[in-house]
Specification:
Blueprint: E1 2-5, E2 12-15, E3 22-24, E4 31-33, H1 34-47, E5 54-55, E6 62-63, E7 67-70, E8 77-79, E9 82-84, H2 86-109
Antiparallel strand pairs: 1-2, 3-4, 5-6, 7-8, 8-9
Length: 110
């Protein structure tokens, strides 16, 4: 059994060897070829995660997730729609940690 998608509405249709090579979608009633569906499945597998992955807002390179990731092409950290150079990311993290430690010292210890 093979799962194919209708090119018109995207409904998943199961096909086995005992059915004809032309299927009809149960939702939109459009007929489509099983052979074309198999070619589309192979193309999707060959493209892999690139079609489903996101793009870096700075260099438009492919990244695996949208938040808290490092772009392999430009080397910047990606936070949603924003990018930051790793040096500035670590400098700001250090400053934030220093300010939080100072606040903790002033409020709790003193």
């Amino acid at each position: 059994m093979i799962t194919l998608k209708c090119p018109e509405c995207g409904e998943k249709v199961l096909w086995d060897d005992f059915q004809p090579a032309i299927l009809q979608c149960p939702i939109c009633k459009k007929q489509f070829s099983v052979h074309q569906g198999l070619k589309d499945n192979i193309r999707r597998r060959e493209e892999g995660e690139q079609k489903l992955s996101y793009r870096c807002p700075f260099c438009r390179g492919f990244i695996s997730k949208r938040w808290f990731t490092l772009c392999p092409k430009c080397g910047k950290y990606v936070f949603g729609k924003h990018c930051i150079h790793p040096r500035w990311f670590w400098i700001s993290a250090f400053i934030t940690a220093y300010l939080l430690f100072t606040l903790y010292y002033v409020v709790v210890i003193k």
